[in-house]
Specification:
Number of domains of chain B: 1
Shape of chain B: globular
CATH class of the largest domain in chain A: Alpha Beta
Strand content of chain B: 25-35%
Helix content of chain B: under 10%
Helix content of chain A: 25-40%
CATH class of chain B: Alpha Beta
CATH architecture of the largest domain in chain A: 3-Layer(bba) Sandwich
Low-confidence stretches of chain B: none
CATH superfamily of the largest domain in chain A: FAD/NAD(P)-binding domain
Strand content of chain A: 25-35%
Oligomer: heterotrimer
Number of strands of chain B: 8
Low-confidence stretches of chain A: none
CATH superfamily of chain B: 2Fe-2S iron-sulphur cluster binding domain, sarcosine oxidase, alpha subunit, N-terminal domain
Structural class of chain B: mainly beta
Distance between the termini of chain A: 37 Å
CATH topology of the largest domain in chain A: FAD/NAD(P)-binding domain
Shape of chain A: globular
Number of helices of chain B: 1
Number of domains of chain A: 2
Largest sheet of chain B: 5 strands, mixed
Order of helices and strands of chain B: EEHEEEEEE
Largest sheet of chain A: 7 strands, mixed
Structural class of chain A: alpha/beta
Chains: A alpha/beta (about 375), B mainly beta (about 100), C alpha+beta (about 170)
CATH topology of chain B: Ubiquitin-like (UB roll)
Chain lengths: ~375, ~100, ~170
């Protein structure tokens, strides 16, 4: 069987950043992705990113994607696309399919950067054509330049719901309303303010009751919720829409970490079951690292930093960096991560992340 | 419906077209785009009928995970149309239930 | 209904008043100036670097709200397109004896034309008054974000923050 030094699984922001750091350290890195193009979800992010201006804030997501790809190319990272990894074995043998053939390769170290997947909400009519994930709509409008519908109801006011609503408007659709079951908006106020200026109503304490239609969506019924999140009779409203998008959170894609026998912790604020890991992003399985949304759903900016961190720690473990050099580099990244995890939004994630590190260290779940 | 002009992405410059056949009807698709995008652009949203309750389904996740958008492509059933690129002359059929392999395969 | 950006998606007047990016009334009277409607502590600081006159400070931690030094601010408007949250505006209260100028970021298609009279809207997307498009800027450095300056009746300088989108897509 072919043997390689380092395998990175997932070519999104975390995986690309990890591969770049490893290549910079003269590591021999192979990057796998199931898609035909690298970049993960970066290429559908057409808005300018927040963060520090020193680290690409103010740059649109897809341009950050292009920069990362240029760098991987320049550094000569071996990228295998159209290659879903479906199993990893305890000896770090990786099974994947590529060009309709099953293949296996053995790696010394593995970094999992598999990302996350959108959650779904079930309600009468939720399977009708025209009901879809907000991310699906975002892919269609921003990557393939096709409108999935003209009149949209968005469910969920986290940053995904707010940003995709804005981008649907930019693509020429009409966002009829955005609803949120919680009594407040979940995402950044500035994102909400953008769509409010465009006249999109935001209904907090509202949920969807049903979607009507025979072959596709023709209308949706929403209802107001009381303080106990129970529907208030008589507050139902029927909205004429042809598309309903769900932006109700994401869950880490952890199948490969389960297969490897990693220990997990359940942290709801981070999206559910997360592989335990230490400050080096190494899991309870030696030589297996994690980075990005698999370690808890956050943002592309934090995913890239975590990718770098995993890459440097992995390079250190392989002896590509000495202690001192690795320590300096890792400290810089931790400083940036801690900065990104401040403020009323960031500190919730910081708290959850610290909790996860603590659980991982102490070995209790 | 195609988004030809966009405030951020600019004009769509990818204009190389291929012809695909959806339930026998020829449709123009952009070279390399996923089948699902071509169908949505042509106003087709119903991709298949479920085996048990005969309910319609279309795209849901758009990234190849949920398998709601599967159709029969060139005689092969259960193809995820959201991640399978179109090819010239491709024959795409709405899938009824679990689908059937064509004799050609 | 509860007021405030967390509940309505629009900053309340109280939030705007206490924002350190808001210029004083005296400064507004003096001439063009930035009006930063950033009221939530999120990790973000491109505006700080964008200002050629060091009139905006975020400092550390980067979740600080941007602080406007209204004496240093020349009202050049370069910061408008730098804000990923599209939360910076420019106000020239005394553009003429009867009109004010409001400049705002705009990322929709199509753009209006300079000289065109267009319906202007407030933070809620509601029509406020007709305004005349004075200037549209969209240099490469703005990376796709246009800024539009409209001339509006003076009374609405605190209300008008955008134009109604054109429906003829």
């Amino acid at each position: 069987m072919k043997e390689i030094q380092i395998a990175v699984i997932g070519a999104g922001p975390a995986g690309l950043a990890a591969a770049i750091e490893l290549a910079k350290a003269q590591g021999n890195v192979t990057l796998f992705d199931e898609n035909t193009k690298p970049g993960g979800q970066l290429f559908k992010q057409i808005h300018k990113f927040f963060g520090s201006s020193e680290h690409l804030a103010g740059t649109r997501g897809y341009n950050i994607g292009k920069q990362l790809l240029r760098e991987t190319e320049k550094l000569g990272v071996n990228v295998i696309l159209d290659a879903p990894v479906y199993a990893i074995y305890p000896d770090k043998t990786i099974s994947y399919s590529h060009q309709n053939r099953e293949q296996a390769i053995k790696a010394e170290k593995i970094i999992l950067a598999t990302g996350a997947t959108e959650n779904a909400l079930a309600f009468p009519g939720s399977t009708l054509p025209g009901v879809m994930g907000a991310g699906a709509a975002q892919t269609m409008i921003n990557v393939h330049r096709v409108l999935p519908g003209k009149k949209v109801l968005m469910i969920g006011s986290g940053n995904v719901g707010l940003i995709v609503s804005y981008q649907l408007l930019q693509a020429g659709a009409d966002v009829v309303a955005l609803i949120e079951a919680a009594p407040q908006i979940g995402g950044y106020g500035v994102h909400a303010a953008k769509i409010r200026r465009a006249g999109v109503p935001i209904y907090i304490s509202h949920t969807i009751q049903k979607v009507m239609g025979k072959n596709e969506v023709v209308a949706a019924q929403i209802v107001q919720l009381d303080d106990n999140r129970q529907p208030i009779p008589g507050s139902e409203k029927i909205l004429e829409v042809d598309t309903v998008c769900m932006a109700v959170g994401l869950s880490p894609l952890t199948e490969l970490a389960w297969l490897m026998g990693c220990e997990f912790a359940y942290i709801p604020q981070l999206g559910g079951h997360i592989p335990k890991h230490n400050h080096n992003m190494e899991t309870t399985v030696s030589g297996l690292y994690v980075a990005g949304d698999i370690t808890g759903v956050e943002e592309a900016s934090t995913a890239m930093e975590e990718g770098r961190l995993a890459g440097i720690a992995c390079a250190q473990a392989l002896g590509l960096y000495d202690q001192e050099k690795a320590h300096t580099l890792k400290k810089e990244i931790w400083n940036r991560l801690n900065t990104l995890r401040t403020g009323p939004f960031g500190k919730i994630r910081k708290f959850a992340k610290d909790e996860l590190l603590k659980i991982s260290r102490e070995g209790t779940a | 419906m195609r988004i030809t002009k966009h405030p951020i992405l600019g004009e769509d410059c990818e204009i190389e077209l291929v012809t695909i056949f959806v339930d026998g009807k020829p449709i123009q698709a952009k070279k390399g785009e996923p089948i699902a995008a071509a169908l949505l652009a042509a106003g087709i949203r119903k991709f298949r009928i479920t085996p048990k309750d005969k309910n319609p389904r279309g795209i849901f996740c758009g990234i190849g995970r949920c398998t709601d958008c599967i159709m029969t492509v060139n005689g092969q059933p259960n193809v995820r149309t959201c991640i399978t690129p179109v090819e010239e002359g491709m024959i795409i059929e709405s899938q009824i239930g679990l689908g059937k392999w064509s004799d050609k395969e | 209904m509860k007021q405030g950006i967390k509940y309505t998606g629009t900053p309340s007047w109280e939030e705007l008043e206490s924002a350190p990016g808001r210029p004083s009334q005296q400064r507004l009277e003096k001439g063009p100036v930035a009006f930063i409607e950033c009221v939530q502590e999120i990790p973000c600081n491109p505006c700080e670097k964008a200002c050629p006159f060091q009139a905006i400070t975020v400092a550390s931690p980067i979740t600080n709200l941007p602080r406007l030094n209204e004496e240093k601010c020349t009202g050049c408007g370069i910061c408008i397109a730098s804000c990923p949250g599209l939360a910076i505006f420019k106000i020239d209260l005394n553009y003429s004896p009867t009109t004010a100028l409001v400049e705002f970021p705009y990322e929709y298609y199509p753009l209006p034309e300079e000289g065109e009279v267009v319906p202007c809207a407030n933070r809620w997307g509601k029509f406020v008054a007709q305004g005349k498009v004075l200037k549209i800027k969209n240099p490469r450095t703005y990376d796709g974000t246009s800024t539009i300056a409209v001339e509006i009746p003076k009374a609405f300088y605190l209300d008008v923050r955008t134009i109604c989108r054109k429906e003829d897509y």
